[in-house]
User: Which sequence fits this backbone?
């Protein structure tokens, strides 16, 4: 990142080059473009033939609450997918808005902070011009696996038919998600048949 910011002629670096387009607008473009790639790629990692070998490692945390320890607990291939999505967002913003180096630096730090919060017990939610951040939405994904794949623009989940609102009660969450553990093997099938525990998000 430092090498790209320092050496790319396409990235303005001086304070005098700061403007609305290459800061606020560029930041929005970065998050939007990143989720265009991330949401379908994330869904692909849940595809039955792929899931057990890559993304299942991350989903060992059914109720992630350790911040970066859980957010960064990923398979190397998943790291490549995530970083590729992130860089796609950066390149789109540089090409479309001439994103400033300070904006790109801020983007990486904000993205990292939100990823940590997504794997925390804190109930944080806000929405700005389609950008919808919800820790509860990602918690639902960890609990039910086949829903809420996007990180920041839940529009993509609505488009894919995978958006489900937050449910504190685990049984209600599984019902709302029409949860199916068929691709997860005998152990998961058995767990789905058993009476699931109630997860209290406020506990």
Assistant:
């Amino acid at each position: 990142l430092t090498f790209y910011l320092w050496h790319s002629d396409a990235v303005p670096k001086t304070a005098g080059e700061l403007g609305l387009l290459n800061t606020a607008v560029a930041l929005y473009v970065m998050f939007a473009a990143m989720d265009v790639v991330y949401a379908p790629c994330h869904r692909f990692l849940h595809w039955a033939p792929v899931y057990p070998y890559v993304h299942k490692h991350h989903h060992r945390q059914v109720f992630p609450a350790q911040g970066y320890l859980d957010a960064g607990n990923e398979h190397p291939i998943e790291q490549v997918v995530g970083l590729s999505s992130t860089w796609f967002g950066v390149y789109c913003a540089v090409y479309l808005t001439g994103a400033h180096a300070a904006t790109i630096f801020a983007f990486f730090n904000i993205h990292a902070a939100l990823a940590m919060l997504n794997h925390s017990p804190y109930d944080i939610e806000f929405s700005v011009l389609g950008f919808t951040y919800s820790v509860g939405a990602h918690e639902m994904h960890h609990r039910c696996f086949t829903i809420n794949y996007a990180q920041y623009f839940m529009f993509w989940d609505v488009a894919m038919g995978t958006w489900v609102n937050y449910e504190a009660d685990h049984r209600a969450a599984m019902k709302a998600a029409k949860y199916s553990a068929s691709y997860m093997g005998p152990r998961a099938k058995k767990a789905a048949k058993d009476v699931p525990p109630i997860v209290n998000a406020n506990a």
Remarks:
- Confidence is low (pLDDT under 50) at residues 180-192, 194-203.
- The first strand starts at residue 125 and ends at 128.
- The CA atoms of residues 19 and 100 lie 9 Å apart.
- The two ends are 39 Å apart (CA to CA).
